[in-house]
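name: query_chain
kind: protein
chains: 1
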Amino acid sequence: MTWSRIAKRIRVPLGFAFSLVFLLFARPSGLALAWSLLPVLAGLALRGYASGYVRKNAELTVTGPYAWTRNPLYLGSMLIAFGFAAAARSLLLALLLTILFLLIYIPVIRGEEAYLRERFPGFAAYSAQVPRLVPSLASMRSASAPGGSFAPALYRKHREYNATIGVAALYGALALRLWYVRGH
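structure:
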């Protein structure tokens, strides 16, 4: 079994395990929690928007946020994760997150791209035009009308609302930690 396949299988359970480590080392402040909302909410919005476009394994999605980045779901996850790292005010957590993303998401993305290249003949042309992760001004300019339309049914099918529930739970835990530390 390749590391790409292993990484794909362990990424979600590893995320839950990392949440426990995160809460252990987090040193939140009210100001840090407030500022962290910017990337976290942007990440949630991007993930939600992208999930309403993608038809996994059925078609090559090139519209909506997929017109600007080939991996808007992963970009959204990174915004959420690094937003929480800012809320935690921990350089160690930010470093661990960076290492985890490099070890997990790069192989997963490469594995998915190999699959898409095999399955969809248009992937090579698409990948030549659209950046892998971080949108460029050129990709956003050339895709000014992304086309397609957001499908709420796809959002529900992919259960993207779970990301919002997870974010709310983690903010709740950070708020409790902040309250407990201030009270004792």
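note: Helices lie at 3-25, 30-51, 72-88, 91-119, 123-129, 137-142, 152-157, 161-183.
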